[in-house]
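U., I forgot to send this yesterday:
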Amino acid sequence: MKVSRVFVLSVAAVLVAGVVLTRSLAQDPAPAGPSPALAVCDIVHVFNNYARAADLNAQLNERGQALQSEDTKRAEAIQALEQELDLLKEGSPEYEQRFNEAQRLSIERQAWAKYQETLVMRERHRLTVEMYEEVRQAVAAVAAQRGIDVVIYNVREPLKGETTAQLLQEMQDRKVLYASERADITDAVLEDLNRQYRASNSQ
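Result:
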């Protein structure tokens, strides 16, 4: 009797364990879906070859040349007054008048140059932020068209460090070690940006 009772209890325990295991498996979450699709894009390459960036750089360079021309005129005016001072007697009313005028022009030139530099820097900063957002939107558009969930920045250019320390730093900064050509959407993003930019200019 004791042996039979022990056997029955053992079988019951196994059955209970089987029920618990079955319930546990049934409650486990369903297998995850497919992994997110990934792609890479070289933002620096896009910026360097974006038609709008090239046009804006040309405009800023023209503005810089105009500012340089204006600065040259201001410097020449100051130099002309200084040359007049060499011909005047120091301490005379005329000398003091020319001296004060030269000082005023010199201070104004420095303040003007600093002000213009600040304007150019602010304009370049604003345009850079604006174009970066345009690039992000183009990346998102291409990614959506191709069913891509995540786009990672990748550097196309080969290592350029001249010293071992520089090479190691470049290696550390690069997060993508390999990406197939199919995963690289850089050219597609650049083509999309330039097409939209040309279309906006043709209107």
